[in-house]
Amino acid sequence: MMIELKVNGRAVRRDAEPRTLLVDFLREDLALTGTKIGCDTSQCGACTVLLDGHAVKSCNLLAVQAQGKHVVTVEGLKDLVPEKLREEGLHPLQAAFWNEHALQCGFCTPGMLMSACDLLLENPDPSPDEVRHGLEGNLCRCTGYEPIVIGVRRAGKSLRDAGITPLGTPREGVAK
Amino acid sequence: MTPEEFRYMRPGNLAEAVAALAEPGAKLLSGGQSLLPLMRLRFAAPKALVDLQDVAELKGIEERGSEIRIGAFTRHVDVAASAPWQALREAAEQTGDRQVRRLGTIGGAVSHADPAGDLPAALLALGARVELMGTSGRRSVPLDEFFVGPLMTAAQEDEVLESVFVPAEGKDSGSAYRKLRQEASGFALVGVAARLQFDSAGTCQAAGIGVTGVGLAPYRAGAAEEILLGTLVGDADVEKALGAILEGVDVAADAYASAEYRSDMCRLFAKRAIEAAKSQARA
Question: pTM (2 decimals)?
Answer without folding.
Answer: 0.95
